[in-house]
Specification:
159 residues, mainly beta, Thrombin, subunit H, 2 domains, 4% helix
Length: 159
């Protein structure tokens, strides 16, 4: 997982991961099969501050990868960086596809409940878990600054 901003011209893959035949058993276990498909393309433009004030108001990329209905929320992977974003929206435009990928800096601000090996529970940000090597990253999340104010978490991201 990376918080870095992939350069235009970099190859990327959009992954569509779907679970099928979900079955729940009496002991509360589940069984399902995953089907993974990928489309590939190129990063066309970067929008570190967002593209506009209405549709793409967050750090994003524009790519030319086909992303048919149902791929929204799927991971986007670039060579050498791992997961760099999530498919946000896509449309088939004249001459090809136009896909928008929301980047991951804000993800590092999300809080989750976590239990360590000793059974102690805590609420931690994804950034905290990355710093403890619970989540594997290449360290680019350190370029962001998290600040809490008025009950909201703000992310200042320096690409």
């Amino acid at each position: 997982m990376t918080a870095s901003l992939p350069d235009p011209g970099r190859r990327s893959l959009h992954l569509d991961i779907r679970a099928s035949e979900l079955r729940q058993y009496p002991d509360d276990t589940f069984k399902f099969e995953l089907k993974v498909t990928a489309t590939r393309g190129w990063v066309q433009e970067q929008y570190p501050e967002g593209r506009d004030r209405v549709m793409v108001r967050f750090p994003a990329l524009r790519g030319d990868q086909p992303s048919p209905a149902g791929m929204s929320g799927g991971p986007v992977v670039t060579a050498g960086s791992g997961v760099c974003g999530l498919v946000c929206s896509a449309m088939e435009a004249e001459g090809g596809w136009e896909s928008y990928i929301s980047l991951l800096p804000q993800l590092f601000a999300l809080k989750t409940r976590w239990k360590d090996d000793d059974g102690h529970e805590a609420t931690m940000s994804i950034r905290d878990l990355a710093e403890r090597n619970v989540i594997v990253t290449e360290g680019s999340y350190k370029t962001g600054e998290l600040r809490e104010e008025g009950g909201l978490t703000h992310v200042a991201w320096r690409p």
